[in-house]
Amino acid sequence: MIDLYVYYKVRDEDAARLAPLVRSMQQGLAADGGATFQLKRRPEAKDGLQTWMEVYPGVDAPFAAALERACEAAGLHGLIAGPRRAEVFTELAPCA
Length: 96
Prior knowledge:
Layout: E1 2-11, H1 15-33, E2 38-41, E3 49-59, H2 63-74, E4 81-89
Antiparallel strand pairs: 1-3, 1-4, 2-3
């Protein structure tokens, strides 16, 4: 299992339209595969841009491809300024 973190920039003027689309997409992914999710943003905007992060803890590796398909289907790319960047983290093995 992995934890998937996806971050991207959102123009201030697009934030109110984008938020319900992302939440709907996340709820659809949860209903389809049981994924849990979070939607976060940095508290400050810079140069009219907000930084948002989607968090998907404890998903399997193929989930990233399903997430990208869901993002395309939801039409998120038109409201995002620049690319979506994904980072994968795994549990650190305990010391012996």
